[in-house]
């Protein structure tokens, strides 16, 4: 196909190029001479290889084509090879040995040299031995270039006479139009072809074979789903892979087709019965239409639903494929691969069957449309029967969609209707039972009738009764045919006395309809009595200790009576005994205790029977009490009896015999131990608890009692040990309280009094700092000692504007502990300084330490720091070194400064002799500095000598307030000067060019490596003389190259005569040296050159 596009001068890069059949016939019927004329035409654009105007060899033609030849024909095609180079080129033409092709040259030599602008002529001769296609090639070889000239022999081709464009008449949408075309093979050989059409077009047949001069009828069909104009292509593919394109045209429009209604509403219909409605489809068009009722609105929804079904088939296949273990075990299959092949075949069969059938026709369990598919003739009507068959007593809504050829969209039809259940009635609406006995059973019969046209089932709905009782029904359901009767028997019993009104419900199962009956009546019941007529009196009781008494409940009736016992005016929380209270850690407080209980609490007394019960009292609230026992019968408080209960609850009387605990002298936070005696003065036992010291809020005295809580018997004695310490210096007083289980929250026990004393801390009186340097921090330790048996907390303070600071201003010292505190001093000017550090002890006395400082040095700060020594390390000779120095006056006095190499100045003024003989110079060396003022100076130097260098610099200053100058600081400058050194990989480079008869050999390029071994970074200049050049990658050429005439730089070819390059320490530079001779004469010439580096 690519050769065909080149012959037809069509761009090969175009995707799906269009080749009309008429153009193909024209090209395939050309003779070899006509083809040669087309290939050598100046208007031809498509070439076998890209061409340039100059510097290449051009072949005309660039492809040799023989076509329409017969057996034994001898044909010859001439070829011209043009040299567009500026120099002569030797050309060699190679043709592999073959019996079909031969080459004819003007000269007998194999290699011919062609001058610039000249051509080399040769000819290709072809002899046809068989009627078939041939392919061969000629290779043209020259210096630095070679290319191939293809030789193509095209035998006779099948030629189908078919139009380039086929137009079909307009048709209604979704219908098929046809056009028959006579296709004849006008070629001299058989035509095997395949046809593919796009965009709704198709052909019959799609493939075939035509002998020479035979013809067939080709039917072109067109069908489109939407209205509009359509353009498609018919791709005709021959056996020889040529692809021809026929343009197809067609258009569609909508026909006058409609339903008489878009909605069908059915009247209410009994379930299991059917109703029919009729809807007409009108065809006002002039063609036969086909219709089908669909379930969904559009083709796109159909496609989605079909895809879901196909995915379901695939999921079943993937799920069933691994289940081959059982089949493999019983020898049904040979292996897992066989099982996978079986299920793949089943899956493909299911897909094929699913896709071949129409699975999305209208389908609904309650609606039916007849017919689902069919056709309607022009100007005719089709009547559809719509059948509604409800299965439940609900409202139904759905829609069907009519797919009609001639309409672009499907015609919707909304379907709606309501199902109706059986009509069953009950003979009564209200059932009055009047007065009935408690817990006795009563039965009532009700009648039901089916007044409808379909059978139905009515069932009793059991439910909980609102007013109590149990209601049952026999039978639970009845099935009635139309106009039939049946009955239900209701059984009722209740244990709740009084009037009641209940709703009894029945449900019709087919429709879910509820039928109700109102059931009402009145229930009466008997009561119990006590054997005690007045009250129960427990007398005096001890709080937290239980007491018990008994009584009888009498049933004098013939009916068993069920009761529940409750107490009126009693609490709701469980009461707690004294022993339980002592065992619990949380010590709960019961605000509303339930002190009384009755056993059994719930019971059923048999007819004419006496039941014995016990009342248990667990008192939790002191004082006189009157409560009531309430016996509730028949699950309602309306029928109950009560009995009064009286008792008096008392507490133990506890007194402390040691009323006052006095401690005359004690350290704060130090624990002391004392003992007290507690006595009970009445006949009631109890449980006491000594309350914590902070019961009334924060206190100055802290104590701990052992035991802090315990039992005390009637008239008993308890010894208690108390650990005491104070947190306050001086007199402090604390009252101790006790609580008794069930009694008041606080009862006064005794008083504790303490006289507190704080911790004692000692520090040195004076701390000396002698001859410290200005502008530098000096530190010294300061020892602090706690001389007391208690913890000491010390706060350290000093003047914020002083010269000293401390490492920690808050200290905690254990008893008898000593600690070193770091004191730091920083001054800006020389002189004498004093300061005081104050040590404040919490709850103790304050101490102070005097700090004395003697400072020496200057107030001038240098950045970077140069005092006492500035070591510059290794430096290069012949290169100026510079360092920026910043001087700042940190004092509050004005300074006049001179930097000099002279230690003793005769006069304080600027003199050039101050730095005479020095390698390094500080500029400016004379300046004035006000307080907090800064100045930047430059320290620079350069030498040609190598070796070690040391120079002293002195700073002379006149300080404000003084008349004479003095040396305030100095520094020693140290440097090591070294010489820059480069190492070359070659001392000499040799290049050579040898010109021979047939070829030329040359050695024109050498690689040189330059390495920096100076131990410092350097910048090197490398210079080379013409005709030698430095060749670097264009990305590596530096921009700051300096060059002068007669040297030059050729950036296009990246050749340099002068290179400036920055080399880091121990790094290398790889460069190529190229030899470009000026003379092109073929004689012995010698050039000498030299590469210089700086």
UniProtKB/TrEMBL annotation:
GO biological process: axonemal central apparatus assembly; cilium movement
InterPro entries: Hydin-like, HYDIN_VesB_CFA65-like_Ig, Ig-like_fold
Intracellular or extracellular location(s): Cell projection, Cilium; Cytoplasm
Domain HYDIN/VesB/CFA65-like Ig-like, residue spans: 158-250, 423-519
Signal recorded as keyword: no
Name of a matching Pfam family: HYDIN_VesB_CFA65-like_Ig
Keywords: Cell projection, Cilium, Cytoplasm
Assigned GO CC terms: axoneme
Keyword match Cytoplasm: yes
Entries under PANTHER family matching the protein: DLEC1 DELETED IN LUNG AND ESOPHAGEAL CANCER 1, HYDROCEPHALUS-INDUCING PROTEIN HOMOLOG
Name of the protein this chain belongs to: HYDIN/VesB/CFA65-like Ig-like domain-containing protein
Species the sequence originates in: Popillia japonica (Japanese beetle)
